[in-house]
Amino acid sequence: MTIKHYYNEMSDEGGHVRAHYSSYANWLSEMPEERLAQKRAEADALFHRHGITFAVYGEKDAGTERLIPFDIIPRIIPADEWHTLAAGLRQRVKALNLFIHDIYHEQNILRAGHIPTEQVLNNAQYRKVMQGVDVARDLYAHIAGVDIVRAGKGEYYVLEDNLRVPSGVSYMLENRKMMMRLFPRLFSRYRVAPVDRYPDMLLKTLRSVAPTGVTDPTVVVMTPGAYNSAYFEHAFLAQQMGVELVEGQDMFVQDDQVFMRTTQGPQRVDVIYRRIDDDFLDPLAFRPDSVLGVPGLLQAYRAGRVTLSNAIGSGVADDKSIYPYVPEMVRFYLGEEPILHNVPTHMCRNKEDLAYVLDNLAELVVKEVHGAGGYGMLVGPASTKAEIEAFREVLVAHPERYIAQPTLALSACPTFVESGVAPRHIDLRPFVLSGEEVQLVPGGLTRVALREGSLVVNSSQGGGTKDTWVLEA
Amino acid sequence: MLSRTADHLYWMARYMERAENVARILDVNHRMSMMPQSAVQEEQAWGATLRIMGLEAPFHQRYAEITPDAVLEFMIFDDDNPSSVRNCLRAARENAHAVRGTLTSELWETTNGTWLKMRDFTREQFADLGASEFFEWVKYRSHLSRGVTIGTMLQDESLRFTRLGTFLERADNTARILDVKYQLLLPAGEVEGGAADYYQWSALLRSVSAFEVYRKVYRDLITPSRVAELLLLRVDMPRSIARCMKEVYTNLREVANDQSAETERRAGELEAQLRFGRIDDIVRDGLHNYVVRLLARVQDLGNRIADDFLVPVSGSRS
Known about the structure:
The structure holds two protein chains of two kinds.
Chain A: H1 22-29, H2 33-50, E1 54-55, E2 65-66, E3 70-77, H3 79-103, H4 108-111, H5 117-121, E4 143-151, E5 155-162, H6 169-182, H7 186-189, H8 198-208, E6 219-222, H9 231-241, E7 244-246, E8 251-254, E9 257-262, E10 265-268, E11 271-274, H10 297-302, E12 307-309, H11 326-334, E13 341-342, E14 346-347, H12 351-359, E15 364-368, E16 378-379, H13 385-397, E17 402-406, E18 412-417, E19 420-429, E20 431-434, E21 438-440, E22 445-449, E23 463-470
Chain B: H1 3-33, H2 39-52, H3 56-62, H4 68-77, H5 85-98, H6 105-119, H7 123-129, H8 131-152, H9 157-185, H10 198-207, H11 211-218, H12 224-232, H13 241-255, H14 261-276, H15 279-285, H16 287-310
Pfam families (chain A): CP_ATPgrasp_2 (PF14403)
Protein name (chain A): Circularly permuted type 2 ATP-grasp protein
Protein name (chain B): Alpha-E domain-containing protein
């Protein structure tokens, strides 16, 4: 499938280079392809040497770590566009945090009838154990990775709110370092807003949500271990913040207090930036077969003696079945009109929606409500008749498990691929931090679908990444 | 710092040091095998190499007879031999990987780069390069790791536990090299300076980078007891047991905790005995017995350090 009409980040319909790309386009046109190829090879070698890799699940040998392909052509966002985006993101994440607090306390939004109660309370991500539990600053999703796409004539849409353990920020930071190393002179042509204070902002955010009464909190990053696919990022963030990288086995709970085992004896832990799903946190409370967690952690958490970041039960708010209600949350909690748009979404649990979806499968993208990583979805226009019919059966059997959206003509950005420089579809994941204040560094992770025509940007599905330049005004 | 982190750092350093020492031991044999010797002598020498590492039994399970090629294959490439150079470099890298956030990026890149190169190293490349060049490469990478460790790491606990790993491993290896070669070159009853071959002793010295050092320190003929003195008791010789124990004791004091007093005392006691020891007494009582007791004490220190610092402390009721 090739989408014919899409927004090209670099040039307009008439083929003219957009103003914010003009200097770059000149530079690129003077750059021989061999030189680009050489720079890309240099980048690959450096990423390998630095070990900036992800492990593919199930492959244990150290030799099977892969690189996420890095594209050397940046995605450029003008200052005014970013200004609007950033305001929209802050607004949205504020509303999401208010929503999570509400549904574990008064449930005002449900009583007001804005969201069907059973869709929230029967959601697999809704954690009853969190009802009535007070968390620091009433904040749940301290770190949010919101997926943004650009469609139509260039309008921005929110595709997904990732509020559990969103990853990718390390690539945002490493991509910038790489670009500055490969093309130092380009950075003198452009005033690119820096992103490198993200680790400081993250640490400040985590410290600001420490349990009440703790003045000098000990923060740790909790990883499932060295074989996790995002381990590089866990280690990277711990190192950049100067905090310990712990595994479940390094911690224990005594008298509702969490400690880590150190060479100088037990040391108190106050804030855990956990990069591990709810289910694996505490074998006593969730999955008893989990060897990754800490027995008694939930009890300590409920007692308010430790902060988990993000909070247990945040996932309910980024569920695809809740997503259609986020604009309503903005209006309900903040009394504001949403700055960022949602993609129109059909909820297959509703009869009329399902009928429409079944009639238009060939044009729609159908996603599993709880799915992630680009698995278990149907991209209608890119599928064969047989694939569509097979999916139809699955959908009819369990309509409540699916939502459908129009196939968005994702914007495309010039990318250096086998055939030379050619447009490829992209998305954007900025990272929003909520603590004492709600803030984000200018930029995010731009993911790019490297296969021609492909709209799937996930690294597990052949996606790559680009540096994201937000220009300073 | 986390006990688990300290454990990984300690083993990262031990495995890197072990890779270097395996290369050194193989190198000395390789050099000796280029000198005129009988088939029996040659087999003895390669057999002794396996004995140094305590790997005779696993070797014989896998190979019919002791030949230079078989021993080299077993000690360099064999994935079933935990002490093969390949496995040591892999283990060093795996331990580094587990705590890469604690390492400086230079140290991580050095350790990772060493493994990536070793991983892709084929037998053909080994044949082309030649054994000596390969051993030089291993030593060079180990020197590089150590230099990067000292040159870039904050002088905190991370560095201390890394150094503890290096020196405990080195003490163990130096003691083993000396013991086996001493027995081989100077069989019981033989008088010093008799049949002992100058080249053999000089090869032994070279294997621990001590040939020039010997010349400088003694300015005299190479004699077995001086070689033993240099490798055991000279504190100024970087690979001697005395030096290693001084480093172990110093680093141990820096990381002391509530339960490590006895370990510190034992390390200090051993360090003092080496510092004030006399080679004549050691040779008179039998060098082999001395080294056997020494190895046991080094191992005891390793176990105690693991108990005091590295293994999760029992504070958990779960």
